[in-house]
Amino acid sequence: MPELPEMETYKTLLGSLIGGQKITEVAIGREKSINVPVDSFTKQVTNQTIKTINRRAKYLIFQLQDGSCLLLHLMLGGWMFFGKEEDKPDRTIQIKLSFGEQHLFFIGLRLGYLHLLSPEEVKVELKKLGPEVLDPDFTLDAFQQLMHKRKGMIKTTLINQEVLAGIGNGYSDEILWHAEIRPDKKIDDFDNQQLSRLYHSIQYILKKGIEQGGYMENPLYKEDGKTGGYQFYVYDREGKECSRCNATIIRKEISSRKTYFCPNCQQ
After folding, report:
1. pLDDT for 3-19, tens place per residue?
2. Where are the domains positioned within the chain?
């Protein structure tokens, strides 16, 4: 599932590709991917200019000229491609927004969605989300205060979107590996030094993920050299060597999530 670095990469790239551009046509291949009747969605979105594209947690918010918004959540397996019709991937297209001869294709949206909402409705949809972990206001002190109120395992806490916004299954493993902390460690057992290390690992890993274009293999457009540059340290690397201590990375299920870590250097 795309997480904060992937959605931030999409936001930046799409801002340069379609920001200020007019949507000339809309095609809906799967009605369940939208929240209003096809005719209403098409009529309201067509001929609207994309004013801004913002990210909140794992969501993108496309603000349209008339003040309405398109709220995107790609969920598991969702991705996008921008280009001409002849360049599109050989995959089922759930939604297509056209910008003249160029199109934004939404692929794999069987669980994800693109909802047409008012700004007020967007606020309601996102009101339960926790703080943005890369926001300058989210300081070490704010993080420590937040963690002191929590219980349970740290892995489960990191991926709880109502606690911290944008961290998912993959990057939570990366963060914990970087901080040298086991994913099944209880928050009650943390001291301030470990919390400080964890906070700085959150900042480091997510910023590195953004700088390297996230982990998604599929390019956003032809000759896209940005997307997919991030290489995982531990996530999905069961049986391979830890790059820090050369021990074997293992996999364990934590709260029904496949979790990868080094049993030697993560304590």
Report:
1. 999 999 999 999 999 99
2. 4-126, 140-261
